[in-house]
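Section handout 9: paired folding examples.
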Amino acid sequence: MTRLGGPTSHTAIIARQLGIPCVVAATTLDQVVEGAMLLVDGTNGILTVGPDEQEARRLVEQDTALQTEIRAWRGPALTADGVHVQLLANVQDGAAARKASEGRQRA
């Protein structure tokens, strides 16, 4: 989490690429007490301080299932209006390029 930035900031892009939940521009972050339980929803940019533990577990399990489904998806790639598109990768270094290449070879 950061106090500054936005969805296209370097922090947000790298976190997204690495699959790390991230909330940027959390302007009230300094009001969170040290040691507080937090639930980070990086997709929607929501930080919940002191979440209900059962609800937090349910949401984490739900997200884990969704991420598994996303990783298993192999296409076809379509835009919302039905146009076929080629799937590519956003890479920043050699390791990310190798990982993207390995994924395409398995498809």
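Moving on to protein 2 of 2.
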Amino acid sequence: MSQTPTRTPRSPAAEAAERELLQSVVETARAIFDARASSIFLHDTETDELVFQAVSGEGEEHLTGTRFPAGRGVAGYVLASGEAMVLDDLRGPGPFARDLAESTGYVPASLMAAPLAHSEGVIGVLEVLDPGERSRASLPELELLALFARQAAAALRLVTLHRGTRAGTATEQVVTDEAVRRGRGLELVSALRELLESPGAL
């Protein structure tokens, strides 16, 4: 009888790097889009759930670790479709699951969401809730969020590259250092926003 492979725990350094990276992503996204909150969900493929892995702003004190079915809500839709989306008014019909939002203690009026995707697929979703007025219904802003999410996914993939394998300490440290470097590189996205806001920007 075949046995399910045992998942080898990652090192504390890799886990710390992942937490630091994800938290920096949501904090930067919240600042870039002048949002009341930002969050990252990662897809747990074993349970088919989306898990709050990092939160900035509303709900940051208690939401990390909270789970909900991957097939529900805006995050579920973005996970399945692989497409970024913006919803200016969440009172009407659509993929927004109000009951899920109410269970978190914060119901936004608008939100933007983009998939965390790399070459192997969509691993999660980045959301910004109640973004500033300029960010709403703006195609360049949605494209900026999508770019930010892709860069975050690429950095996160480096951190999780050796999940389930026995990586040597030296190899794992190289992965961690590279992930931190790419995480810092996310700051370049702020420069793209400045370019979009500059006179004569396309």
